[in-house]
Amino acid sequence: MQLGLTMFATDYAIAPHELAKEAEDRGFESLWLPEHTHIPASRRSPYPAGGELPPEYWHSYDPFVALSAAAAITKKIKLATGICLLIERDTITTAHAAASLDQLSGGRFIFGVGGGWNAEEMENHGTVFKTRFKKLKEQVLAVRAIWSQEEAAFHGEFVDFDAIWCHPKPVQKPGPPIVLGGMSLLSIDRVLAYGDGWLPIDGGMGPDALGPLFAEFERRREAAGRERESVSISVYGVPQNAEALDKYRTLGVTRALFRLRSEARDVVLPKLDRLAQLLVGSAL
Length: 284
Fold this sequence. Notes:
The protein is an alpha/beta fold. Helix content is 38%, strand content 17%.
């Protein structure tokens, strides 16, 4: 099981490229950056975790810009959107940006995507909350076509374009892995229908509580005829202790992601040092 990191890369925290370099130097496998283009000031959509929405949600860098900066000063660490709100983005432009990042990083990009939770935010981008997952599926399929075909075309309800030329193509063939976030049974079905990986959130629940959901994932994967190796599981925000990691490893998790707060460099680096001990099996 690989160990990675995730953090809202903000204008008041350690710079994302510096975080990527420090993470790579300590042996972490990947860095995942979430995104929100903005947060509507109305605050009508409640924060899923409860309470007040943390300011990192409206202070985060664009993930493709941040990951490109990280790619320029790293060599091995995988660079991921975790997640990209694809339903708030233009499909062709995003496919182009992702392929460019994969090229410039030497094939290290992971495309984490999701449908989001803030209805007003996506409405500002012209996306209807109730149909966001239908749009997401079409966008994912269209992105795959753009990455893999010389003259890609797509005709759907939400994404519609005739044959186009779009280069560069990704280093990874037929394209970077597309990982879908979500915690519902419907999200599992989406992963198995058109994804390369699943990104559930621990959120303080722990591996014991999530065990039944993982068991259901395995049942549905077998029923869908997907080979286990064809779909990864990356758990977001895992407990920072060896016992939880051992349990997730037993559950067949591909990658465990430690969540870091958006804090300054001098605060984050000691935390990286402590977390790095878990790479060799030591307790925090």
